[in-house]
Specification:
- The protein is an alpha/beta fold.
- The chain has a single domain, classed as 3-Layer(aba) Sandwich (Rossmann fold).
- Helices cover 40% and strands 17% of the residues.
- The relative contact order is 0.15.
Length: 260
């Protein structure tokens, strides 16, 4: 994956992002790094809408939104980039249109499709990080396998009912991958249509995904690598679990590595 060159901030950008630049340890260099970053966001639903608006507001350089669904009225309860005027419009286009009004100087692209393995591999070559904002296990496993193969970091989020979780994966062969997590905790492949979802829960998890992406892209703070952060909306409590690499994992374990 080619590195993107950092461009110096102009005075208007320095003012726009001044509250981040003022953070101890963040400064101009990290903001410039953020403005040169390229993010692939898969899923423009509840998680994707929440994550995308904070990434764009924070000043990532390029965002590519991947989703082939259209906006339905049941989406409006939690997918905050879409409006009543967006009904019947592709989610990627609706999100793109709203995000451009939030920050017009960034490059925001929309892909109306579900990526095959080959297409995802091609996208990874021109992006620095992936945000997994999908709503199904098969897509998460696909993202995990291809990101591990390409050594591309990705941030995974999930939310259902009153619960949510977020974790970051670097693609490093010493770290656990999403498949290790899925095998350890198991996962019911339920949808929000089947189980329901409270609107602010996806906002909380999506915002955490954006924060994790910024930390990884700028090497600021400590991301959730080898950690799973779980949120219980009923009690407003967070719990953190250590993730252990599975040596027999079909993606990052010994057998998986031999098949790469």
């Amino acid at each position: 994956m080619p590195a993107s060159a950092n461009s110096p901030l102009n005075p208007q950008q320095a003012m726009r992002y001044s509250r981040q630049i003022l953070l101890a340890g963040f400064d101009l260099d990290k903001q410039e790094k953020l403005l040169s970053s390229r993010v692939l966001l898969i899923g423009a639903g509840g998680l994707g809408c929440a994550a995308a608006q904070y990434l764009v507001a924070a000043g990532i350089g390029q965002l590519t939104i991947v989703d082939d669904d259209k906006v339905e009225i049941s989406n409006l309860q939690r997918q905050v980039l879409h409006s009543e005027r967006s009904l019947g419009v592709y989610k990627s286009h609706s999100a793109q249109e709203t995000l451009v009004t939030l920050n017009s100087e960034l490059r925001i692209a929309a892909l109306i499709k579900r990526l095959s393995d080959t297409e995802l591999q091609s996208q990874l070559e021109s992006h620095d990080i992936v945000l997994d904002c999908s709503d199904n296990l098969a897509t998460r496993q696909q993202i995990n396998a291809q990101c591990y193969r390409a050594n591309t970091p990705f941030v995974s989020g999930a939310a259902i009912r009153m619960e949510g979780q977020v974790a970051s994966f670097t693609g490093h062969n010493k770290h656990a991958c999403y498949q290790c997590l899925s095998a350890t905790f198991g996962e019911q492949n339920l949808s929000c249509m089947e189980a329901g979802i409270m609107s602010p829960v996806v906002g909380i998890i999506g915002a955490m995904q954006a924060l994790e992406a910024i930390k990884i892209l700028t090497e600021f703070g400590k991301p959730l690598v080898n950690k799973l952060l779980m949120f219980d909306g009923m009690t407003s409590e967070w719990r953190s679990f250590n993730l252990v690499k599975n040596p027999h994992c079909c993606v990052c374990g010994d057998s998986g590595a031999k098949n790469q």
